[in-house]
User: Fold this.
Amino acid sequence: MKNVRIIIDNKEVIVPEGTTILEAAKKVNINIPHLCYHPDQTIKANCRICVVDVAGSKKLTPACSSFVFEGMEVSTNTKKVRDMQRGVLELILANHNQDCLKCLRNGNCELQDLCRRFNISKTNLEDTVDALPLDDTNPALVRDSSKCIKCNRCVEACQKVQEVHVLTHSHRSTHYNITPAYEMPLEDTLCVFCGQCATVCPTGAIVEKDDTQKVWDAIHNPNKHVIVQVAPAVRVALGDSFHMPKGDIVTGKMISALRRLGFDQVFDTNFTADLTILEEGNELIKRITEGGTLPMITSCSPGWINFIEGRYDHLLDHLSTCKSPQQMFGALSKTYYSDYKGIKPEDIFTVSIMPCTAKKYEAERPEFTHDGIKEVDVALTTRELARMIESAGIEFTDLEDGQFDNPFGIGTGAGAIFGASGGVMEAALRTAYEVLTGKGLPSLDFEEVRGLEGLKEATVDIDGTELKVAVASGLGNAKVLLKQIQNGTSPYAFIEIMACPGGCLGGGGQPIKSTLEVKKKRMKALYKIDADLPLRKSHKNPDIIKIYDAFLGEPLGHKSHDLLHTHYHSRNKKFDFSGLK
Assistant:
């Protein structure tokens, strides 16, 4: 590709043809202000905050959508440019609810950052904030249209990436709005609550439902034994919230922070990820050898479960009956752990820290109770945990490394890679191969199912029998595999589907600005955790072996079926989800 030479603010830069002015400016550390632009999305050019002055042009030029040419001269900081940018910001603020101190995105808001940059604390324009109702009746997400700047990032995430098509455009001119069809609340739509809209929103228009006060109340209740589990993807993302290098593995500091917050025991969701593999792997083997429904599809991503229940309910028999690791942990916490500690199940308060907003929805599902007691009392996102740590005045980067508690403290490398797209598949193959053949694997690394590609496939030779498998991350990619199943053309025996692009490491509850480049670093970190652990196969976890011997019996046995498996349902009027709060 041909390179071109341009000048930006008197700095020479050489970039390939097809580069935008905004991208070229980054090469020389010039940060052109922007709002609708997102590095992982298509160019929108509708906010006009990124305008610059191009020599020879009579009009100001949007930097996000204008491409460089040989000899171009760009000025980004002239009076004309700054006046225009300030004017656009003031217009946005005039139609923006400015209750910043009450907003979850306070201090982490792109609009707020730009107002600080241009020294704008208030606008002289008359406020015309849209008086639209707050949508906060579902367990996962809160929509506040009074904070929406109409950038359309959420619409692209919902329509083009996830292909869920819940968020869309409504009305025109001054009444233009982003909303579900007919302005329905999210709980009355087929929203999957994946939270990808929230991760790209530049303001507080879409945020996770904050449940931190429920956890504080439990911690401060002397009658509650409060325990916490932490998902694998959290430990490679939490450091982002404390200005640590992207992808840093902060497991030890995270454990210490949770203890400082007041949790009585700190456990590892990797343990029940390993348990999931034992149950799911044996379920796959049973379906292959006894003629069950194939391909079998993983069931550990709640956003994916919501998607198939709402749009492909005729394919529900393809789902594994396994609960997710979060819910397996919850079930054991109110049964096995209750007996182990001699504490009544109703006195145990189980918290999960997840990279996912859909986990909040999952924890509230009516079938995830045991003897009338919720398995997981509260699911928090990575972002909520970061806020709790900040609220407690804990200097995260100065913490010493802690260790997980027993009996749910040992996780293998197979459990750790659950957080990456392809990780569940790889973990399952490590176990299924050895259970079926009785032989050790020549290599534990299944490179074919690794990476951030939306669709991946592999063929595994198991003693002369070829097993074809596939992996999809992002619900738009899942549709490709589902259509093959519908058409009877699917060649696969086993399929892994994760709702979020990249898997849980790119979940809707992860720190804001989880871009593609950030996800790559998190994925690399998860595979490093796997490679560095002495145990890398789920069926070799000594505490998993112990819990089967002492409590569960055997995979797919009566007790494990009762506690660790479930059935999923069509999201229609026959199964009413409206009572979830």
Summary: The first strand starts at residue 3 and ends at 8.
